[in-house]
Amino acid sequence: MMFPKKGKQKYGKFSTLKRKLHDIISQYVRIRDADEYGICTCCTCGKRLFWKSGVYGMHAGHFMTDGTHASTRYDLENIHAQCFLCNNMKEGDKVKFAEYIDNKYYPGKADELRIKAGMHQKYDRLWFETTIKEMSVKLSELKRKKCFCDE
Q: What are phi and psi of 59, to 5 degrees?
């Protein structure tokens, strides 16, 4: 017996939703952390690069790694502009990253993120679709505010 398909899903596979949200958040964070000229400063080493500088350029680095800590994967306070070297080759340079977070927000914020990272979090399709819409709007507003309209 064949069952009728549910309404057409906008983004297709679940993995496509995850990739779409990852890409939007990555772009949002790099633009958020860029100055008026589009230059980001690495949160751990201070290197300055254009926000859209490719694979070996500026990344959206996660303090608590996104691959193993689902509860902080999309937390914007856990994600900051970080150069390729620090993000990949130095595995995030966690000590300096924690110092950056505590200085940017308040002392103890890095510890809060560590605790949150240990909590179980499961995201469903509706959460992804809603968050993609919300973050797309926030990204568009941020691009307009910072005059990155052509990007």
A: -115, 170
Residue 44 lies in a domain: yes
Asked whether 128 and 23 are in contact (CB, 8 A), the reply is no
101, 77 in Cβ contact below 8 A?
A: yes
In a domain, 115, yes or no: yes
Residue 17's H or E segment, with its range, is helix 14-32
Give the number of domains in the chain. Answer: 1
Q: Which domain holds residue 105?
A: 33-134
Determine the 3-state secondary structure of 86 from DSSP. Answer: helix
Running along the chain, 151 residues long, what does each successive block of 10 average in pLDDT? 49 84 96 95 96 86 85 95 94 95 97 93 92 97 83 50
**Token representation of residue 147:** 């005059």
State pTM to two decimals: 0.87
- Angle at 40 (CA atoms; ends 35, 43), nearest 5 degrees: 120
In a domain, 8, yes or no: no
